[in-house]
């Protein structure tokens, strides 16, 4: 999709900007770690500069018409400075995983400057392996949700990665030979007002035709109703007042949890479930542990998660396509048996998948391109009714072959979601090259004990592996103390 100067924001993008305040930051991103020493910052900026043509929105900022006349518009930033957006940072020694996670939390506690393009990228040096081994470096991506717009939006991170260490072939598209970008002049206040009035006149003229088109195509109308509803399970059981129904402040905590994709596949095969079912069950186990650590009872507690799934839309004549939508899944924190939690979630999700024509999670991102950041943005835009869920859980299948930046291999990547009003916790999960990383973002004051959720997720995964016979009981404790698992903030 072309991203042109003076494009109006979509209604959804404008709502995302309008909903943002001192406490709600409409930000998503990731924290990635790489092998070897960090590249020279100038070389990385040039690498990014060459690929900005693929994502022109990253050199544009929103411009607002006077008196709220109409939609804001994307305009070229005449003062665009790549040095401002691609920043250099270093961790204090010893640069461990806990310090990196605290840096992520601090960065995602700060809103983006709306007078500039709505993204920042941090090159972080001084990161050491948790066993005190070789130096590594990290890349923290921070992007406003409005910047990756719609199903055709592309995140900058998607085009930054290469398929191999030598050729520099990007994961999506071709490296432009030359970047001759020149910003177009900023519109005046009068021009913005006139453009808004033209948009309103055009919308009024097109409304009758759009109505007739919808009424003459019942299948398309049904798809629109499904999109508007947002949640396929929200009417089953509304979420009662729960421990995760709290106001949020401006500050954040962030924790990552590593695991192996093979572990989830062993469990899902043994229990006739999906990887996503196992992910949801391990999060439920983590929340159960957290509640018990707080001295709370879990009997009778009902928690639900807003979960994106891919559904099949279209007709046999026109061809089918996949589209993300939101469902609400139970998180049975009242069940003490980990396998029973998987089975309950499996049965609940099977029903909604059959009714909606949902695809397996592996097909959401079953392509060779590095699309997980884009999928996270699209999933974060979906909305279930606020009183139908306790937290959002997004499971993003990524590529299983290695990716590179300037010849440095990507080792791990953990997603960072966003907190909505009254939702002090969000869980984002991403798989890559045989690994799985959970990213837990929480409100600083509401969840000072977020580490207990991480401990519970790890324990729940270990219990499931033991129940399906993947590990011996005597090996569970030693696996939990494995040096491969980073110290958490």
What does this structure look like?
By secondary structure, the chain is α+β, with helices and mostly antiparallel strands. It folds into two domains: 184 residues, Chloramphenicol acetyltransferase-like domain (Chloramphenicol Acetyltransferase); 251 residues, Chloramphenicol Acetyltransferase, CATH 3.30.559. The protein contains 13 helices and 16 strands. The strands form three sheets. Strands 8, 9, 10, 11, 12, 15 and 16 form a seven-stranded mixed β-sheet that branches. A six-stranded mixed β-sheet has the order 5-6-7-2-14-13, with helices on both faces. Strand 5, helix 4 and strand 6 form a beta-alpha-beta unit. The chain is globular, with a radius of gyration of 23 Å. It starts with 6 loop residues before the first strand and ends in a 9-residue tail after the last helix. The C terminus is likely disordered.
Report on the biggest sheet: 7 strands, mixed
For the record, the count of structural domains works out to 2
Task: Kindly state the number of beta strands.
Answer: 16
Radius of gyration: 23 Å
Distance between the termini: 40 Å
- The dominant shape is globular
Classify the beta-strand content into a percent band: 15-25%
In N-to-C order, the SSE pattern is EHEHEEHEHEEHHHEHHEEHEHEEEEEHH
Name given to the CATH homologous superfamily of the largest domain? Nonribosomal peptide synthetase, condensation domain
Poorly predicted tracts of residues: 218-241, 358-368, 476-489
Residues in helix, %: 25-40%
Q: Structural class of the helix and strand makeup?
A: alpha+beta
- What is the CATH topology of the largest domain? Chloramphenicol Acetyltransferase
Average pLDDT level = 82
Number of helices: 13
CATH-level-2 architecture of the largest domain: 2-Layer Sandwich
Q: According to CATH, what is the class of the largest domain?
A: Alpha Beta
Catalytic activity: an acyl-CoA + a 1,2-diacyl-sn-glycerol = a triacyl-sn-glycerol + CoA
Domain O-acyltransferase WSD1-like N-terminal: 9-279
InterPro entries: Acyl_transf_WS/DGAT (IPR014292), O-acyltransferase_WSD1-like (IPR045034), O-acyltransferase_WSD1_C (IPR009721), O-acyltransferase_WSD1_N (IPR004255)
Domain O-acyltransferase WSD1 C-terminal: 324-464
């Amino acid at each position: 999709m072309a991203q042109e100067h003076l494009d109006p924001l979509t209604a959804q993008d404008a709502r995302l900007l309008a909903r943002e305040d001192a406490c709600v930051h409409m930000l998503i991103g990731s924290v990635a770690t790489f092998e070897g020493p960090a590249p020279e910052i100038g070389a990385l900026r040039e690498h990014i500069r060459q690929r900005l043509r693929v994502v022109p929105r990253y050199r544009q900022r929103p411009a607002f018409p006077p008196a709220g006349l109409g939609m804001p518009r994307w305009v070229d930033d005449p003062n665009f400075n790549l040095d401002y957006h691609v920043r250099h940072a270093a961790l204090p020694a010893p640069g461990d995983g806990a310090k990196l996670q605290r840096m992520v939390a601090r960065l995602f506690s700060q809103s983006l400057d709306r007078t500039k393009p709505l993204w920042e990228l941090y090159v972080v040096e001084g990161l050491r392996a948790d066993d005190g081994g070789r130096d590594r470096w990290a890349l923290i991506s921070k992007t406003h949700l409005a910047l990756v717009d719609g199903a055709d939006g592309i995140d900058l991170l998607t085009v930054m990665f290469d398929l191999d260490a030598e050729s520099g072939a990007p994961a999506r598209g071709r490296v432009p030979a030359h970047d001759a970008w020149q910003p177009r002049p900023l519109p005046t206040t009068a021009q913005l007002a006139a453009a808004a009035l033209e948009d309103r006149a055009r919308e009024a003229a097109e409304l009758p035709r759009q109505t007739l088109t919808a009424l003459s195509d019942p299948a398309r109308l049904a798809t629109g109703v499904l999109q508007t509803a947002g949640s396929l399970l929200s009417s089953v059981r509304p979420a009662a007042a729960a421990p995760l129904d709290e106001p949020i402040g401006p500050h954040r905590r962030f924790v990552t949890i590593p695991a192996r994709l093979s572990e989830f596949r062993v469990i899902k095969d043994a229990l006739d479930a999906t990887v996503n079912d196992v992910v949801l069950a391990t999060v439920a186990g983590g929340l159960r542990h957290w509640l018990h650590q707080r001295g709370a009872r879990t009997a009778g507690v009902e928690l639900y998660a807003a979960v994106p799934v891919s559904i099949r839309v279209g007709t046999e004549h026109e061809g089918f396509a996949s589209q993300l939508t939101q469902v609400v899944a139970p998180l049975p924190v009242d069940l003490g048996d980990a396998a029973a939690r998987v089975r309950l979630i499996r049965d609940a999700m099977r029903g909604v998948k059959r009714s909606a024509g949902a695809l397996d999670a592996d097909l959401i991102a079953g392509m060779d391109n590095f699309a997980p950041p884009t999928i996270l943005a699209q999933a974060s835009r979906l909305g279930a009714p606020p009183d139908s869920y306790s937290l959002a859980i997004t499971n993003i299948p990524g590529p299983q072959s290695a990716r590179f930046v300037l010849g440095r291999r990507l080792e791990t990547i953990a997603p960072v979601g966003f907190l909505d009003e009254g939702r002090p916790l969000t869980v984002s999960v991403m798989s890559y090259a045989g690994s799985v990383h959970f990213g837990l973002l929480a409100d600083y004051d509401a969840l000072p004990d977020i580490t207990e959720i991480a401990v519970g997720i790890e324990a729940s995964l270990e219990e499931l592996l033991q129940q399906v016979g993947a590990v011996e009981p005597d090996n569970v404790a030693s696996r939990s103390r494995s040096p491969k698992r980073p110290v958490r903030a």
